[in-house]
Fold this protein.
Amino acid sequence: MSGGVIVFAFAASVVLVFAGLVLFTSSTARRVERALPPSGQFVEVDGARIHYIDRGQGPVTLLMVHGLGGNAGHFTHSVVGRLARDFRVVVIERPGSGYSTRAAGAAAGPIAQAETVAAFIRALGLDRPVLVGHSLGGAVSLAVAVAHPTLVRALALVAPLTMLQPKSPDVFKGLMVRSPLLRTAIGWTLATPLSMARRDVMLDVVFGPEAVPADFAIAGGGVLGMRPSAFVSASTDFMAVSADMAALVKRYATLSVPISVLYGTHDRILDPAVHGTQFKALLPHVHLEYVEGAGHMLPLTVPERVASFVRGVVGRAG
C-alpha cells in the first residue's frame, strides 16, 4: 500500500470518527431536550433570549441565579416550592445556560452577566428583589449589587464565589479552552461522551460528601449538561471569571446592601475559609452561616436549610 493511500485512509478514518461523534452528540441533545423541555417563559434582554421560571406571589420577590454549568432546575428541584408559598420566586437561567442564549460577541464574566441580570430586573419590573446567588451566581449577584445597588434589596449567597480562586478543582480542567472555535469543536464531538464517562467522578466532587439526589438527572436539570451548548457555555464562563473577579473584589468596599452567606463546611468546589471567612473579613457586616458536613450543592442537598436561610435574609432586610 502506497504512502498516499495510507494517508488518505487515515484522514478518512478521522473524518468518520468525528462525524460519528457529531451525530452522537446531536442525537443525545435532541433526546435530552425531549425529556426536559423548557418549562418557563422567555424575554429578550440585551440581545439574549433569557429563559426564566416565575412562581408564587408575595410582598418580596426572590431572584435566583444559578452557578457554573447550572440551570433553573438547581433551584426548582426543591427550594422554589418551599419559598413560593410566601414570595414571588423568579429563577433566571444565565446567558448561554439552560435554555437561555448568549448574545453574539457578548462578554461572559460576572460583571457583564450582572448587566444582563440588571436589565432582566428592569424588563420584568421586579421591585428590588433579594438576589439568591449560588456558586458563580453569587459572584454575578455581588456584581449586580456593586453596579446597581438601588435595584437590589439584599443578597442571599449560597456557596458563592466571592474571592479570587487560587486553584480550581481538577475536574474542571476540561473547561480550560481559550479558543472559542476549539471550544465549539470539543462541545460537538468529545464533550458529551466524556461527560458520560466521567459522570460519577464529576458528581462526587460537585456534590460530595453528600449523595446526589436520585432524581437529579431530570428534576434537577442534570441531563441538560450533556448538550454541546452546556459545555460551550460553561467553558466560556469559566475562562472569563478570573479577570472579572480581580476587578470586582476591589469594589467590595462600596457594597451597601445587606449580605448573607451560607456555606457547607465540606465544600469541595470552593473553599469556605476563602469565600466565606475571608470575604467576611473584608466586609464585617456580612452575615455568615455554615452547614456542618455539607458540600457545594446546597440547594439540591439541603433545600429546607437553604429556604430557611433565605427567609432569614428577607427578615433581616425588612
Remarks:
- The chain is about 45% helix and 15% strand.
